[in-house]
Amino acid sequence: MAAMDDRPVIAEFADVHRHYVMGKNVVKALNGVSVQVRKGDYLAIMGRSGSGKSTMLNILGGLDRPTSGAYRVGGRDVSKLNDDDLSDVRGREIGFIFQSFNLIPQLTVLENLEVPLFYQGRVGAESRKKAEYLAGRVGLSGRLEHKPMELSGGQQQRVAIARALMNDPLFLLADEATGNLDSNTEKEILDLFDDLRPDGVTIVIVTHNPKVAERADHTLWLKDGQVEKLVDNRAAARDGDAP
Amino acid sequence: MRMVTLGLKSLMLHKLRSSLTTAGILFGVASVIAMLAVGEGASQETLDQYRAMGVSNVLIRSTKPEETQQTSSTSSSWSILGYGMTYAEADRIQNLLPQATVVRVREFQRGLMHGENWASKMIVGTEVAFLDVANLRIKEGRWLTELDQQHQANVCVLGASIAKALFPLENPLGQTVLAGVEDRFEVVGVLDTQGRAASPNGFTLDECVYVPMSSSRRRFGDVVRNPSTNRWESVELHEVKVKLPSSDQVEDAAAVLRFMLQPAHATKGDFEITVPLELLRQEEKQRRMFNLVLAVIASISLLVGGIGIMNVMLATVTERTREIGIRRALGAKKKHIVQQFLVEAGVLSALGGVVGVGLGLIVPEAITYWFGQKTSVMATHVILAFGISAAVGVVFGLYPAWRAANMDPVEALRHE
Ligand SMILES: Nc1ncnc2c1ncn2[C@@H]1O[C@H](COP(=O)(O)OP(=O)(O)OP(=O)(O)O)[C@@H](O)[C@H]1O
Ligand SMILES: [Mg+2]
Fold first, then answer.
1. How many separate domains does chain A show?
2. A122 confidence band (pLDDT: 50, 70, 90)
3. Domain segments of chain B as ranges
4. Does some domain include residue A67?
5. Contact B328 A58 (CB under 8 A)
6. DSSP structure string for B328-340
7. Average model confidence (pLDDT) for chain B?
8. Per-residue pLDDT tens over the stretch B105-133
9. Domain with A211 in it: what CATH number?
10. Global ipTM
11. Which of A24, A51, A176, A208 to mutate to test the pocket of ligand 1 (most atoms within 8 A of CB)?
12. Cα–Cα distance measured from residue A219 to residue A196, given in angstroms and rounded to the nearest whole number
């Protein structure tokens, strides 16, 4: 995130506030956050419990709106969009990966993969081909007709990653994506993220786990709804290597 | 289509629950169709009955006076009980309504015999116009003629079933029927099967033997022993049928006849006027009432089914809160969620509707088969029942679907 970076900004917080009114109290879950995410970035968000990580992620994902401030996706302010238009932003620009995988249990892997395109009226031979390709990409070819329950946790999360890629999103949003997995599987999933990066995929993850965060390029530390610091993990690693 | 198969898939998650809910609609639809079919069948039967009695006819029957019936055991059995319509009155009716056809009818119950075969049925003495006024058709031979009437000919025409009973194997034409102990009549014609219900005298038109009025008078006289009370009764005419040129005149004619006959019969009340057209109208009115009542019952049963659907859909929505959150995160708009759950509710009730229609078609058949009750399934009723069931699904699915769509996606995703 050097000043001279010429990669396009695909997601930008400009003095974002998110306040919850609880009776007389106002909880300032986000209290003036400004961040830029550029194409190809791999950003981890960390912070203590209650620091505002999930709130930030919800706004990044278009599931929630800022109380004030602007949130721009691909240069367009989406903070004031109505529900339908915001749904379109989610459907077209964002790929969600959840801690508990969140596959729809009664649907097959193929059908799960097609859900994002379904809501854009793009289900057909094309979407099937794409699902097959992405299933192969995450190492699950031949499992398209399985139900989620027939897959292991790691496999389910791979399906979820493939699903997040189906709509060619501007960026992937992962909320504790490895929180429900053992350390081996966690490593596999993180390796998969690394594999995807040469394709130009942008990734934002929220995590409590420093091991997970350090695989990202940068770590954004939140504290009490504000940016505490933005750490360049590569530089930190170099500093660590050469004391 | 895809929505429907996906909806079916979701319903398969809870097979028992879905089928129980469906059953609510199913029985609602089936019972509506079946009830309507039974009502329709019964009503059509009576309507046919009344139509066959002639919509432009007024029927005047002699009835035995009430109080004499009670005192009959105490009063002398030698006295003759006279009542009912007279020849003179029939003539006056004809004069009063010159454009009408007036047919006189006399009835005698007699044992009828041919060879080995015997049956106790009705001999009807009547006139030529009876055939037309009573809507009868000749199958074989001929009907009674004016000539028969003038010559007091000993000829008769047989109703279809009495012909079968007396002549199971032979052709009855030209044969002789013995009535009582000494009166013989030559069969000149046989009537087509009528199939109507019994007339007030207790016999159907198919069971009667028709002879010229003049012959019956000469043979049997006007004084008859009533076999049930064992008393002598004097009845000139048992029935007078009046056929008007058109059915619009029927009600006026009936009023005139009542007015005319009332004074002479005021004390005994020994006649009764039947207007088939009025009965027809009453029946139609009753049928409309019946249909209205049915519609209310149907609405209630479908309402109950609908509440069942709403209940299940609310449970489904709650259970699948997370799925709703996922779908919203993946780009589903509110309308998509509404659609999804409406389709599910619609599929649920339409399924009940289809099976219900099937059952509703079978049940009337079974009723007809086991109970001999005529039933009639109308296409409009089937369409109506099915349409309502589908509509019920949509209407009662609306609120759960609306609830689903208006969940906060963030909350929904957090739901366990
Ligand atoms: N819907 C809400 N209503 C009221 N307050 C809320 C709501 N959601 C979050 N908060 C508050 O906002 C603050 C930030 O919450 P948030 O969930 O973003 O924290 P977090 O960093 O994700 O924490 P954790 O690591 O525990 O998940 C907290 O004080 C929380 O209580
Ligand atoms: Mg959180």
1. 1
2. confident
3. 2-49+282-414, 57-243
4. no
5. no
6. HHTT--HHHHHHH
7. 86
8. 998 888 898 988 888 888 999 999 999 99
9. 3.40.50.300
10. 0.94
11. A51
12. 19
